Structure formats: C-alpha cells, structure tokens
C-alpha cells in the first residue's frame, strides 16, 4: 500500500477504539511492551483507573515505562503537548512510544472540545518526529460525535484488532468542526469590565470574584496571573480596549477576555519557551495555571476563556 | 500612587559592596519599560553583585520577568551575579513555572542572598 503523506516517515498517530477492559489492557500493554523489548523509551499518560490495568498487563516491563495520571497531566489538555515534547526531547535521536488518553466520558463538553483540539494539534506539533502515538477511545461510553471527530484527528485507526488509515483524517492543519465553532454564549449574569490601560484594576476584579466564588488563595492567584497575561497582550498588541467577562457556577469560575488582537499560531501557548527566552511566556503560563483554556481568533479579534474548577482536588505546584 | 516603585542603594558589606534594588507594588507590562531603565542603569555600572529584593512585590507578569531575565543576561556577560530575594508566593510560583529560578538564584532573604 502506498503511504499517504500523513503516514510517511517515522511519525504515527493512531486512534484506538476499544470496547472492553481486556482489549484495552492487552493492546496498550502490547504497544508499550514492544517498545520496551526494542529498548525504546515509552510513556503512558492515562486516567488513574486505567493505569493499574495497563501496569498489571505489562508485568515486569511496567518498571521501564514512564506513567502519568492524565486527569492531572491533561486536566487542561493544553498542557499535554509541551509535556510530551519534553519526553521526546529528553530522548532525542531515539524512536519513542507514547500512549495518551485525554478523552473520557465524564469530561464536560468544553473539555471534550479542547481535548479533541489537542488530538488534532498532535499531528502538527510532532509532524516528522520519531514518535509513535496511540490514543485509546472507549467506544462504549463516548458519544458518536466524539468518535467521529477522532477519525478526523488520527491519520491511522485501530479497531477490533484491525489497523487502517483513516479516510476522514483532516491533515496536520485540519480541525474538527466542534473546535472552530463559536463558543457557547456566556450567561447574562456575567460581570463585564472594559479596560484600556489599568491592569491592576483587572487583577483586583478577578481576585475579588475568585474569592467570592470560593477559589482557594493559590488558585485565585493563578487565575489573576492568567487573566493579567492575556489582558497585557491587549495592551501590547492592539490599539483598542479589551473586555473582561467573569461568571461562576457551583463548579467553576470562568474569565473571558476579548480584544481586537489576532492569534494565528494554532500552537500558541503549547510550546515551553526556553528559560532565558525574552518572550512567549504569556499564553504558556495561562495554560500552565488554568484548568481549561478556550481560544477563538479570527481577523475581527480574539476571545480567550479561562476556566478554574472550584472544588479542585489538588492545586498545581 | 505609582503601581510600582523602585529604590536602589549600594550596600557596604563585610566582603564587598553590592547593589540592592527593591521593588514594591505590582510589576506588569504597563511599567516594564520604567523597570528596564532602572535595571539597565544599575547593570551599566558593572556591579559584581546585584540583588533584587522582591519582598514588597505583590505581582509580577511575564513582561517584568523578561526585563529581569535580560538584566541577568548582561550581568552574566559582565561576569557579575544577579540574585533575587524573598519573593512572595505568587511571584515565587511564577519564577518556578517559567523555570527562571533555574537561571537566576532565588533566596529566601537579602541576607542569605549576600551570603551567596
């Protein structure tokens, strides 16, 4: 079979559709175990419950695989690519294997959209990388729309033991429609504030709202930093004012910043800047501290929604 | 009142004098040019040691961080040492997340920074 450009070179990105825990454990363990047997670095980021399933199936090989709890590492899917990039960089010159499961049924629809965007961006971020990536999808619990979009974000598919190229794959620059559709309307109750130059006032408003919503101090400080970085971009890159909207419900507080700036880089904020870089930290910090970040940009302006869960089990340290 | 105030002193110590810059308030994109001017002027005097006291700083954004990183680069080139002292938690966390604390030594106090 002639290889399409999507699957040429060492980079492989496979959507794995599974139905049973046994099929899951066997397939994922075989994928990682083959890497271990070949002396390749292997990394698995899976929801906590799935980790033990795979570790048990791997047996002694489990000790040679790096594991991470995806509910922490990928709570904000915008943090996964830089984490995986660090693994690839650490093993430069070697073929690496990675299993990443950022999509599970209990995720909110906003999270599912961003996790799907992350899956699409993998193709762009790691094009040409010497990496083999397997992404499990639980077809018994995920909605059909999620699975349909997984066919668009993965050049290769594995289902019922059969591997195939995906006919629906949309290419390294393609995005499933849910990722580019307008964001759902914000609630009428949102507090609106227009700023032009006073970022201190922006920060004070965010801090006050975060505390009222019940966010602990450290995470309130995180949200203040995130919003301030985004609002600073308004001052730096646009001649006009920006708008901040804040709302919360029992589960989360959301801050939305809209301005006339344009962000064209789909990977903005998903590359770790060099420590001594004199730029590029802003959006990266936003992704590091927030639980979820949604970004929409076109030639009329940019909207960035930053979410913080109110009852978060552990703060990022 | 200004959002950010800076004060600069040359401090005599047991070993050798050092430059102490105290930042108070909030450092962000609206005052990073002013901060750069202050740090540039001090770095140009080629001190062996410059300590930035962050204990009065309530907030620092990435523009202010870039000014500090730039000062650190020049200090390095001149064979001098830049150190940061007593950041409050939000600022300390920002230094950790950006890994700036791997490039520039961060001390719990000015006294410990002078002991190096």
Largest sheet of chain B: 5 strands, mixed
Determine the number of helices of chain B (DSSP H or I, runs of at least 4 residues). 5
Distance linking N and C termini of chain B = 34 Å
**Rg over C-alpha atoms of chain A, rounded to the nearest angstrom:** 20 Å
- The overall average pLDDT of chain A, rounded, is 94
Q: What is the top-level CATH class of the largest domain in chain A?
A: Alpha Beta
Number of helical segments of chain A? 10
Uncertain segments of chain B are none
Give the helices and strands of chain A as they follow along the chain: EHEHEHHEHEHEEHEHHEEHEE
Beta strands of chain A, count: 12
Quick one: how many beta strands of chain B? 5
List the strand order in the largest sheet of chain B: 1-2-3-4-5
Percent of residues in β-strands of chain B: 25-35%
Mean pLDDT of chain B: 95
Explain how this protein is built.
The complex is a heterodimer of chains A (317) and B (116). With 317 residues, chain A is an alpha/beta fold. Chain A folds into two domains: 173 residues, P-loop containing nucleotide triphosphate hydrolases (Rossmann fold, 3-Layer(aba) Sandwich); 119 residues, Heat Shock Protein 90 (2-Layer Sandwich). In chain A, 37% of the residues lie in helices and 23% in strands. In chain A, the strands form two sheets. Chain A has a seven-stranded mixed sheet with strand order 3-2-4-5-1-6-7, with helices on both faces. A five-stranded antiparallel sheet of chain A has the order 8-9-10-12-11, sandwiched between helices. In chain A, strand 2, helix 2 and strand 3 form a beta-alpha-beta unit. The radius of gyration of chain A is 20 Å and the shape is elongated. Chain B is of the alpha/beta class and 116 residues long. Chain B contains five helices and five strands. Chain B has a five-stranded mixed sheet with strand order 1-2-3-4-5. In chain B, helix 1 links the parallel strand 2 and strand 3. The model of chain B has no long low-confidence stretch (mean pLDDT 95). Chains A and B meet through helix 8, helix 9 and helix 10 of A and helix 2, helix 3 and helix 4 of B.
